[in-house]
Fold each of these.
Amino acid sequence: MRYVIIGNGAAAIGAIEGIRVNDKENEIILISKENCLSYSKPQLYKMLNQDSLESIYYRDEEFYRFHKVTTMLNKCLKSVDFNKKILLLEDDKIKYDKLFIATGAKANVPQIKGFEGEIYSFTNIEEALKLKESLVNKDKIAILGGGLIGVKLSEYLHKMGKEVILIVSSEGVLSSIGDQKISEILNNEIIEKGVKLLLSTKVIEAKKEGSKIELKLEKDIIVCDAIVSCKGVKPEIFPFEKTELSINHGIKVDENMKTNIEDVYAAGDVTEVYNHFENSYCNIPILPNAYSGGYCAGINMSGGDIKMDTIYPMNSLQIFDVQMITMGLLRPSEKDEVLYLFNSEKKIYRKLVIRDGKLIGAALLGDIDRAGILNNLIRNNLDISSIKDELLNNKINFYAIPRKMREGIVKLYTEGIK
Ligand SMILES: Cc1cc2nc3c(=O)[nH]c(=O)nc-3n(C[C@H](O)[C@H](O)[C@H](O)COP(=O)(O)OP(=O)(O)OC[C@H]3O[C@@H](n4cnc5c(N)ncnc54)[C@H](O)[C@@H]3O)c2cc1C
């Protein structure tokens, strides 16, 4: 019996840990096209001003030894013959009995009319090191995209002393994660700290003028030394494109992280999962989902039977001096109840979205205390009608929650997926 894992990110690590819960002996082979141990992508920014990879490793070498994993690094999967259960690498063929796919996502880099130079991206070590090398003689950097990576990269480059121009097509940064108010607060914070933020605009074309780049926007023309695209990511599905694997916005998986093909599982950024609150399948490319999905798949591949926890988007980050946590659904429908408070002086914003008495989304800015309680209330699907005002005003602690509710939360912690 041989398990083969494609990928070495958070989902792959979750799968290894899941498999070894039930199966301590059978062979696990891990194949990854990158030539390094698993690393944490939220720490990737550190690679811009340090040389050693070690501080961003997600697991060390001992981890693979301990879990009896044979690693095949620097090997790229090209295609799969699912009927014969054979993986085709560039220069090798590997047979599997159970397959776990965790190829993650790749950068979405747009074509810019008239531009033939390099457009950098920032989704893996290779791209981060390439950007780092190019920064040596570049001062003015244009970043395209106001999502999580674009905003954090702007902050990082600004702190490194670069002049940063952040170009965003929507009215505010992080518009897909939060809501209008969150974007407004963060737009102000970014501008206050010295990043040039250009909103509601797009790059029309660009041309190289010697070592400089002239970017023509809808309303402006700017000159910069480098362009970095942070315009989101898309699932890395190329090895499976001409196969019978069911793929939509990502590889389709059920609650057990099974694909439509027998003995083939998948998790993480490469998948499309069921979002309970949106009542639809979507790609939620965040680390906790990748790890939990991998763990769930690992348990099921090795003979267990568990379902993936309720899946929803969740983000925890700090943009300059503003701390923020968002979870669940923040764009309410007409039938949802929305509670919020805003203190502009203290830069505090709290918002709760409630459906049928149950918490389905929360955003905390500035004051992020007790985010864990809110997250557990969402996960447990508990009625919060009697404590909603206390939750909004952050006047509640775990022991003030009615006993039945507390029991539900504890049960989830002790029985749930790691
Ligand atoms: C800069 C940055 C910051 C982020 N910040 C956050 C954050 O703050 N919070 C958060 O929750 N999430 C964050 N994320 C997202 C998070 O890192 C991802 O959701 C998570 O890494 C997904 O894990 P994964 O295992 O699905 O894929 P990945 O971690 O992308 O791993 C994919 C693996 O597959 C391998 N692979 C791909 N194709 C092949 C192939 N053909 N053959 C062999 N191997 C292959 C790759 O080498 C890699 O090992 C961030 C991402 C980036 C890029």
Amino acid sequence: MSTLTLFQNATHWRTGERVTIAVEDGVVVPIPRRGHEHARVLDARGAVLAPGLVDLHVHLREPGQSAKETIDSGTRAAAAGGFTAVACMPNTVPAVDSPAWVEWVRHRTGNAAHARVYPIAAVTVGQKGGQLAPLMAMARAGAVAFSDDGHPVASAAMMRRALEYARPTGLPIVCHEEDPELRGEGVMNEGFTATRLGLRGIPGAAESVMCRRDVDLAELTGGRVHLAHLSTAQSFETLRDARRRGLPVTGETCPHYWILTDEAVGDYDTNAKMNPPLRTAEDVRACIAAIADGTVDCLVTDHAPHTPDEKNRPFSEAPFGVVGLETALALTITFLVEPGHVSLARAIELWTAAPRRIFDLPEVDLEPGSVADLVLFDPRSEWTVNPKLFYSKGRATPFAGWTVRGRVLATMMGGRFTHLAPDVEFEHQLVLPAGAAT
Ligand SMILES: [Zn+2]
């Protein structure tokens, strides 16, 4: 006997209308007019119902680094953050650089995961930049994109070849843009704070010159380039320029780049150490402008968990990376929607339909027939970020102790709840009188 779930009186994410959405057997269905023996009804008044969020840039750390995160803990964190799908980066140990490893990730994430997991495969063997990985075979095995994320593809000639080989697969190359020599031994943004702290700096140009290069290579080859975690004003300008030229180039950015500057490093706080590093106030303004005017195609977290021991090392020695899945929606609402930079509907689109288009993932909506991958959230509910309560094994976030608005109440994947806030209660109804659900 199948169970009917009703989200009653929810606010539709796009239209703002009050709606009741019914889910049965894993899909959205028309509201039944007859009685139903097994119904659970959720009073969603005051909450917004939307397709489940999608994060194209997540590090799940498996295989090989399960002390940092596992597919289980990472997707549990995703569900808590309102995500029903994530794409995972191949910079694992070993790297996902063969069809066998792509299949391993797909198999591993099959039924156990709390979110759908789409593997991204490496561009080069071992992500070492020397030899092209078997892109076509990995695409056939189920990879949704290629990336050496964690590292750039340093050689322009190698990137050209990768784009030529990726082109027939139709999949994008996700580019971690960083000129290794310009970055040098840098550990944070080059500027006043780095100087004050006596830390070696990474100039913004280390990112932006590589963006330019890969936009030009997209034009040369016709291959698809997706610029990862953009952080500088010049990089956003390059993306804008690529769009104007009609090139097959897309780009993403992360919450910390539209909220924080390098001053967040404060006194060697490794919770503000990520790559690319936090930049200047001008870069933050450029990031927001690029999101607001549609230059940025989608939002991602770059969820990059490390063990607390690793992050507790001295600033120069600690690894780059912070977690992001469980704070992303609230940081979007608090710092993009509430100040009026984008509408709530546009913000949700940047976390749902937009990333789905870039990686060609199946569409999800609230219409009957759609798979029931949904998130219910209260956009006004205030909460304080407490990393101790994260489901992720990673605890490093620059937003610990911040009060934010927008709380996930329930996440549903394929009709099954993958996350429920403690205060969400169902009304179980044995028989629904006909018409009662409208
Ligand atoms: Zn990266």
Amino acid sequence: MHATPVVGHDMAHDEQHVHEQELGFLRKYVFSTDHKVIGRQFLFTTLFFFIIGGWLAMMVRWQLAWPGAPMPLGKLLPKAMAPGGIMLPEFYNSLFTMHASVMIFFVIIPLLVGAFGNFIVPLHIGARDMAFPRLNMYSYWLFWPAAVIALAGFAVEGGAMGGGWTAYPPLSVVTEGLGINCWLIAVLLVGFSSLAGAVNYITTIVNMRAPGMSFFRMPLTVWALFITSLLTALATPVLTAAVGMVLLDRTVGTSFFLPQGLVVGETMFHGQGGNPLLFQHLFWFYSHPAVYIMILPGMGVVSDVLSTFSRKPIFGYRAMVYSLSAIAGLGFVVWGHHMFQSGMNPILGTTFMVSTTFIALPSAIKTFNWLGTLWGGTIRFTTAMCFALSFVSMFVIGGLSGIFMASSAVDIYIHDTYFIVAHIHYVLFAGSAMAIFAGIYYWYPKMFGRTMNELWGKIHFWLTFVSLNGVFFPMHVLGMGGMMRRIYDPTQYAHLQHLQPINVFITISAFVLGVAQIPFMINFLGSLRWGKVAGDNPWQANTLEWQTTSPPIPENFETIPVVHHGPYEYSSPLTDEDYLPQTQDVGVASESAHGH
Ligand code: HEM
Ligand SMILES: [Cu+2]
């Protein structure tokens, strides 16, 4: 079907051996160009930032439940943040802004794309490494200065960025403080890091597939990461440019986003006819596709996990690929649904409403296909499978609230309320984060050669599943009750006071959710040493990564595999086993998954 650069592979192969002998500790484990090492580096780093982002959220929740009460250990914080342990409003703003920024830019995106993408893509397609190993290393090492600079905001005069992860001007331009510059520089750097990754994935997937690995024999995780990388390549530069323009407005006196004659308090600003609304357009032109950057890889991972543990082919493989593409394509024409309230012409608003509603279509196709995959399967309730099932059900809740908000008439009432916070957490925490856990439990044996403990995994799953609904579901109610989305002290408003018990309930659930991650951390770290030795293919799965050792040898495969089947040939009539590895030649080749 396609020309595989066999020569290229052999060269990579030889090079690898030469390296093996020469590489010191630093080149092998720190500045490595091996995609597997970089994938694991991204995994450890992003899990570390997951803890930081989680702490920030806990502090936000403390304030919302018990406004003005001193935080436990709060006295350890500097006076500029929380005198006497009571957080200041400015610090509260920094907390929710940095919580969102850390989770989006330093956890979910780099975990799904950087960690899974790196580790899985070359193994899944039967390549020895990524197309540009050195660029890959740069992509990881750009991540660190970005993260450090973002968090350094907490240490500078004026504190960390407090203008929301959306960084709307004029606020983000006229507010003084180095923290905002730190945030802007960090987002610039992380944008370059993402771009380097995207170029690499696209090239690798197009050029380096093993013989027989046609596009329609690729696992859906690879498809999802391929489409995600296209989104990244097309959308991220827009954010990077917009953020750069805010930085210029702040530092060298340009006026991209500052209108003429802007007066804030006593100060008249130097604006020369810039347009704050332009930023919103640029921001959402990136950030709507970005929400798909945060969910599509999860959809891919979940498809793989569901098929493996249902022992059935994925239902409607091609429909899955087409709907992934449709979601991505539509993602570029719906950004205005974040701006219904910005004074746009209602006809334009209606256009955005219609295009947004269309997204329900491919989303529903995917959901029904996942259910079709489960139907009649021999389901194995592993921890990975539980998280994948949770993804499917919770994504439906998040998708449905999306449809509410997509209706511009409804959105007038719920825009900028806790309803939005409920929506984004159903898709991002109950969605993407569940897919991440599914992926970690599923690929851990391949990454580290040992399996994670199932009992601890189940404890982690149930505590997480129950408490996350305790945290995020009542937020819909708060939103309908009119609680604003970014608010320091809800008890100051008469119309919110009767909702306060809900806020307390949410905060307690959030603490449980935080504690629920401890069994995961123990399991993750403990299994490195004490986990059961996994063997090559502990889940009896079909895809190529399971046909090599766990963890794989530096060049991934002894010889480059030859692919004979689609990735989901479970319970295939062509074999007596209930799975048929992609490499196994039974005399009959099959294209993509056969129907049942
Ligand atoms: C059926 C699919 C979806 C629809 C129809 C939808 C619709 C919407 C709409 C209309 C808004 C703006 C509401 C407002 O601000 O008034 C919104 C906000 C948001 N959505 Fe979705 N959405 C969908 C899926 C997703 C997914 C899959 C994700 C992420 C994984 C996501 C993440 C977000 C985020 C982060 C925001 C809030 C952004 C902000 O203002 O900070 N959405 N969504
Ligand atoms: Cu959107």
